[in-house]
Amino acid sequence: MTRRSTDNPPPDPRSGAPVTTFPPEPQSPLDPDAGTFSIGIVGAGQFSKSFATLWDLHPNVSRLVVTDLVPERAEQLAARYEGATTVASFEEMLAGDVDAVAIFTQRWTHAPLVLAALAAGKHVYSAVPMATEITDLDAIIAETERTGLTYMMGETSYYNPATVHLRNKIAEGALGQVFYSEGDYVHDMDLGFYAAYQYSGGEDWKATASYPPMLYPTHAVGGVLGALPTQAVSVSCLGVEDRRGDGVFDREVSQFGNSFSNATALFELSDGGTMRTNEMRRVGYPSHIRESRFRFFGTEASFEQLAHQSVWNDKSESIDISEQFVPLRSDTNGEELADVDPALREAFTSGSAPVHDRSRLPAVYADAPNGHEGAHHYLADDFVRAVVTGVAPPVDARRAAMFTAPGIVAHASALAGGQRLPIPDYAHPTA
Fold it and tell me: Is the pLDDT of residue 4 over 50?
């Protein structure tokens, strides 16, 4: 069984025609009688807690199993949910009877864990990024298409309010030909990332805190390519050498040999347009107000987004539509966020925005914790739907690769002084 999110892609992937379509949004909640399955949670941090809570509430999830390299963390998370249990290791989880695993571990560990889980016959939900090497993207796609198992990457920007709105507007043709787009991820290291790396990295946390910005590109790239039916085909990228001097982004200290704290990439798209992406880790910007922000310019209309304002322009007028993209605050209580660095709490307290259609979500999600501008509810439900129905989720393995590969190649370009490099085609399977 082969699963693909593109039914009839054009024969020439570099022809300038759209290369993929987006699956239609579900119109109603999944039937509780459609079936249930169990999920193993790998990594018991705050991000996994948010999704564990949503899956525990979901009527089509039967039970949770948790594992973490620190057993106490797994036990604390499992204790929050009736019937949840723990296992001592990832290997024990794969040998057990869970139907699916959700991977919330360090960014560079995702690919080997995903491949091991697929080989063990488990459906997989993975936090971003999909992988850090092109060969691993290829391997995950091959394994999902060989087995027919569900793979989903939990990219929050697919349900970013701006992306949701532009996906609909572009499908309607309201912008005409979109020839230029931007996706920026603006998150300063001082605003929560230091604490997160210290929590997960132990004494040698600085070695991993230097993770290259362009290897974490999906919150920027995915928000653009989650709205435009195209893919990136080449890139030129420049990295900015860090000057803080605190041992983070020090090439000699870095596990990744990385000294870039900011990077800017210009991508050629297969439809003839261009996309620019900024990944910023040293920036004077309060990232909690809007970490990911987007701009789209078309021949008939355009959309521009800043920290507090979103504007729709056409040839006759400019309209402030900011209110459509402001998520209502969630009623998440203090206990839910007790262990979260204050600088990161905004990511776990947002409700849905007016552009979100909540009619497809389980009723029990109405008062459930949400996050990342309303994305968590939709991502949790997407994975459940995919496993229960056998229909590929919107961000399946191929689309996940389309969101991830541009950053991997962009980082290689930055290391080569901005050399323009080709990006593999993931919309069109080779024979």
Answer: no
